[in-house]
Amino acid sequence: MVRLDQGGSFQRGLSVLVAVAEAGEARAEEIVRDTELPLSTVYRYLRTLRTMEFVEERDGSYVPGWRLLELSGQQLTRTRLVELGHSFLRELSESTGETAVLTVRVGTQAMCLRQVESRHPIRMAFKIGQLLPLYAGAGQRMLLAHAPETVVERILDHPLRHFTTATMDREHILHDLQQIRRSGFLVSHGELSEGAVAVAAPVFADGEIACSITVAGPKDRCSRSWVKHARGTLLMSCQQLAEVFEQHPSGQS
């Protein structure tokens, strides 16, 4: 029988695990602030949690490991998104003529989980598994708009890298996040890659954002009429994917 007293080792270990799970990505110093535990104690529990694969270390930060993701259902969610999302991405790419991308939030970053590239020789595309900044680019900022407030604060409290002259600063991002939540879609112009135009929309499951889907291409092909067509097609596809996902959350047919 485990005793959960205030100073209990079990409770301290759980508090470290909860701090990582709630933040999505946290440095040891941030966990110290959240748990009020000594830094040496935090590192000791992190070593244990890493050994048990409940957390992973990435460039000095700690993120949920595969065991924690599996317990929380996130691993299953991502697997289902890969399985269900491909046909929607293919249809979007064919309809718009451009690359369709499905991204998910991983801590304080976004990750390209799946994509169908445009058939044009010159096109916009990421690598599967590529990590992207949450604050720059349509699909990424859509995820940020629906992320927990602690994630938004953690990102915007640090200096933001300007990838292009169109990359937004902190004040513009904060204002834009409110607009994104109201409108339900986002259009970006060259924020992450020069000359790119992207339209993004969210996919919700059980009241929370599961992923964002983006269609993107070079500005020479992506006119205002293209943006209008892409937005309508994208919003319809995201709604359909959300309905299918909620109908078959565990791969049931």
Tell me what the structure shows.
- It comes from Leekyejoonella antrihumi.
- InterPro entries: GAF-like_dom_sf, HTH_MetabolicPath_Reg, Tscrpt_reg_IclR_C, Tscrpt_reg_IclR_N, WH-like_DNA-bd_sf, WH_DNA-bd_sf.
- Residues 67-247 form the IclR-ED domain.
- This is IclR family transcriptional regulator.
- By secondary structure, the protein is of the alpha+beta class.
- The chain has two domains: 9-71, Orthogonal Bundle (Arc Repressor Mutant, subunit A), CATH 1.10.10.10; 73-247, GAF domain (Beta-Lactamase, 2-Layer Sandwich).
- 47% of the residues lie in helices and 21% in strands.
- The strands form two sheets. It has a six-stranded antiparallel beta sheet, sandwiched between helices. Strands 1-3-2 form a three-stranded antiparallel beta sheet.
- A hairpin with a 2-residue loop joins strand 8 (196-205) and strand 9.
- Helix 1 (9-23) packs across helix 3, helix 5 (74-96) runs antiparallel to helix 9 and helix 6 (138-145) packs across helix 8.
- The radius of gyration is 20 Å and the shape is globular.
- Mean pLDDT is 85; it is low at 1-7.
Low-confidence stretches: 1-7
Helix content: 40-55%
Largest sheet: 6 strands, antiparallel
End-to-end gap = 42 Å
Strand order of the largest sheet: 6-5-4-9-8-7
Question: Any key phrases for this structure?
Answer:
single chain; 253 residues; alpha+beta; Arc Repressor Mutant, subunit A; Beta-Lactamase; 2 domains; six-stranded antiparallel β-sheet; three-stranded antiparallel β-sheet; 9 strands; 47% helix; globular; disordered N terminus; HTH_MetabolicPath_Reg
